[in-house]
Design goal:
- By secondary structure, the protein is α+β, with helices and mostly antiparallel strands.
- It is built from 18 helices and 14 strands.
- Keywords: Coiled coil, Membrane, Transmembrane, Transmembrane helix.
Length: about 550
């Protein structure tokens, strides 16, 4: 009778473990723990079936052969228990090839010892009948005890790992711990009995069979797919941004606490619940109209002064679609950017102010630069500017092969004007001459005050004859237009020396040639224009 009861228990355990194994294998892609559970169930199934079969035979040789094959399941159970404990602590854990190799070493040696036992009898020393209807049990040798020690060490490590997880306060470890506690007594009792040379039926597999469904239930309850909806809901409730879900008709389906707080701060007189409300109610009529709900694209909106609240919102509208690609609504993620908008406006104001200041500074710099090359009395360019302009004009004439005329103008008897009419009158004469010379210039031509009562004209493109003619006309104009100053009529004349760039001359050489021609004009009686000797046409 005892044989039948034990056989029924072993087969029941095998059925339970097989069901867990098949279910775990089907769900192995959902979480790594299901794969370990499938191997664990398969190992228990094979172990329990072999134990049930061994109860039916009274031949020691057959019993030892059957019990030896049970160690395939035993090794699978221990290894999968070890792996399962890792998955309870770390849901991202995966069995690597290196880890698998280490786990396979001892089972391979164990099965080798079992297969070769008839020659060395170090794993099974023999078989003896028990008081359970004469059913046989194995008498174990030293290699078995080495294997058993390894198994219990590995199971102990797994148990320690689970207990540590439970001690850290994670409630999901309690179910695993219960499963471990249930599976341990039979294994411990069996180990103690064997060590005392008791002839006991090994019931360890029954303890594992009972614990396996508990482990599976806990695994299913706390698996990643099972936790996902809870995690999503918690994230939805805890996220700091306001999230509103609306249906295809634009009515609110759900919103998180952050959205509820934000909307009530914007619209204090809004309804207590927004579920079922339209966007116009949600954000105010004007803002609700501005929000674009497009079934195909995500749209970002920046809305200022929402419903006259003084708050600015940044709203991202994301389309929601079902598995068939049909639009089923939208998710609105809103963020209060009032402070950011204020900072942006302040930054823009400061930037505009800086740009205005930089523009003013640039104008002042340009004005200072211009003043540095201007004569403060006449407003003409000064000698510094003249020398740069002359060098550039000479370079251009040399490169282009075009003529360049230079005239040096000097007022006649200017000291007499200062002595007779005063320095103010002298300044007025200089200013009037500067105006006359400036009005006579064309594009690209330059007039500059060279110093004192001397002025220089640069006439690019002018031939010697043209330059002399223009200077002579200017001389006539100045003489014919007397200056009225302080009731006095001041008639002024000037003398001019003209030279023309012919190729090798430097700016200094041109100025010297014009100065020599001016000196000749002075010596010739003043009020005249003299062409430098170097510029005279060949006879």
């Amino acid at each position: 009778m005892a044989t039948y009861v034990l056989t029924l228990l072993f087969l029941t355990a095998a059925g339970i473990a097989a069901a867990v194994s098949v279910t775990g294998w089907r769900r192995r892609h959902q979480a790594p723990g299901y794969g370990a559970m499938a191997v664990l169930g398969a190992g228990i199934t094979q172990w329990a079936v072999v134990d049930a079969a061994s109860m039916q035979f009274r031949d020691p040789g057959i019993v030892l052969a059957l019990l030896g094959s049970a160690f395939i399941g035993v090794c699978a159970v221990v290894a999968s228990w070890h792996c399962f404990s890792y998955t309870t602590i770390d849901r991202g854990w995966r069995l690597t090839r290196r880890h698998l190799t280490w786990l396979a070493i001892e089972p391979a040696l164990c099965l080798l010892a079992v297969a070769t036992n008839p020659w060395h009898h170090q794993f099974f020393a023999g078989a003896e009948p028990t008081g359970f209807d004469g059913a046989y049990v194995a008498i174990f040798g030293p290699l078995f005890w080495l294997h058993t020690t390894y198994c219990y060490v590995l199971l102990g490590i797994a148990l320690t790992r689970v207990i540590r997880g439970w001690a850290r306060g994670a409630s999901r470890y309690r179910g695993y711990l219960i499963a471990v506690i249930i599976s341990m007594p039979s294994a411990i009792f069996n180990a103690i009995g064997l060590s005392l040379h008791g002839k006991l039926i090994d019931l360890t597999v029954l303890g594992f069979a009972v614990s396996t469904p508990i482990m599976y239930v806990m695994m299913t309850r706390f698996s990643l797919p099972g936790l996902a909806p809870v995690a999503h809901e918690r994230v939805f409730q805890k996220i700091g941004d306001a999230v509103v879900v609306v249906d295809a008709g634009g009515r609110v389906l759900n919103l998180n606490p952050a959205a509820d707080r934000l909307l009530h701060s914007l619209l204090p007189e809004a309804p207590s619940s927004y579920v079922g409300a339209t966007l116009r109610v949600l954000f105010g009529a004007e803002t609700g109209i501005k929000l674009v709900l497009d079934a195909d694209v995500d749209v970002d909106h920046t809305i200022q002064n929402v419903a006259g609240s003084g708050h600015d919102l940044e709203v991202r509208v994301s389309a929601l679609q079902d598995r068939a690609g049909r639009s089923i609504g939208w998710a609105l993620v809103a963020r209060d950017i009032t402070e950011r908008s204020r900072q942006r406006r302040e930054l823009e104001r400061v930037n505009n102010q800086l740009r205005e200041q930089l523009h003013t500074i640039e104008l002042l710099r340009a004005d200072l630069a211009e003043q540095a090359v201007r004569d403060h009395l006449t407003g003409l360019h000064n000698r510094r500017y003249l020398m740069n302009a002359l060098a550039a004009a000479v370079q251009h004439a040399s490169n282009a092969g075009t003529p360049l005329a230079l005239a040096l103008v000097d007022l006649d008897h200017f000291k007499r004007v200062n002595d007779e009419y005063g320095h103010a009158a002298g300044d007025a004469v200089l200013v009037e001459l500067a105006r006359t010379l400036s009005r006579a210039l064309g594009d690209g031509e330059v007039v500059a005050r060279h110093g004192g009562e001397e002025f220089v004209l640069l006439l690019p493109g002018a031939t010697p004859a043209e330059a002399v003619a223009r200077l002579d006309a200017l001389r006539q104009t100045v003489r014919d237009n007397a200056l009225i100053f302080g009731g006095a009529t001041i008639v002024t004349t000037f003398s001019a020396g003209v030279t023309v760039y012919t190729g090798p001359e430097s700016p200094a050489t041109l100025l010297q040639a014009a100065d020599d021609a001016l000196y000749a004009a002075k010596q010739g009686g003043r009020d005249r224009v003299v062409l430098a000797a170097a510029a005279l046409p060949a006879a």
